[in-house]
Amino acid sequence: MIYEVFARRSHDEELKHVGSVNAADDDLAKAYAWTLYDEESWVEMCVVPRDSVIPITPHGRIPLWGN
Amino acid sequence: MVQTEFESLEGMSEACARGLGNLLWALADTKLLLGYHYGEWTFGTPALEAAVANCSLSQTELGHVRLLHAVLKKHWGEDPELLIERRPAAEFANVTFLDQLVEDWAAYVAANAVVDLAATRVLHTLQGSAFKPIRMSVDKMLDEERHHLHHGRGWFRSLAARSDGAKRLAEATRDALRAVAVWLGPADDAGDRALVAARVKAASNADLFAALTQDLTALAREAGLPLEPARPSSFGGWDARTRRMDARGPADEIVFHLRGSANELFKLS
Question: What does the domain layout of chain B look like in residue ranges?
Fold first, then answer.
């Protein structure tokens, strides 16, 4: 399953998309996101299953951010 | 009056000081071997993400070894270089499951999901320790260990769900859990009792093992994997320093690589 990874460097910064990971479950997605995208000292990081993303644009197709 | 907090070993009973030194030594050795095996598994993983994760897991374990060695040096006078470079293999106090090469991914998952978890549970018991110097380092280590636990649990579930992986995982998990039971030691270990009595440690190793078994059993049940009881019937010959029932240690090949013996000539003096 593909998970999209979001993070922010400081509390006053917006959460931004930093990449995606392929993982069998939420636990692995968390571990992979943290170890793959460790280039910054994030104050917040979260993952969202790509299947949970609801497209709005007419031909909104996933993937939205690559992969 | 009973002392409630220790800045150093001063004022601590001899049994407590010895028990704590042994525990930190065992934690450092287990993390050293975990770091080695995670590093070995930077290649050959079933998923590229797992390779990157292992590289990171290895780094954090080796960082924790440095933290623990610093405490052992300052308060017990242990020489970190000597602990790795000169100590006979039979004096290593790591969980014996890590003594040999981790031969397949199921064994790797057992090391991650069982052995790493056990070491982390020991750290949890030191979180509010009356021994202040260790308390300062534990929070940082536990924060990093969260990702190790996610990785272990995730792969445990993944392998358990596969018909070709479940049987081997059950075997490896049983072996790892038995080795952890020995490493944590007998319920009547005087050093462990002294640590709990002095509130240096929040729970006994026997209680810790019971909780660990309960959690792993729940994880295995959820994944449809049978998990056998692992506590040995006897702790005959158990040594509080090495936490082993025999005088073995990590394989020569592993100790050779840990020490960087092949590059002895190039070491900085």
Answer: 15-263
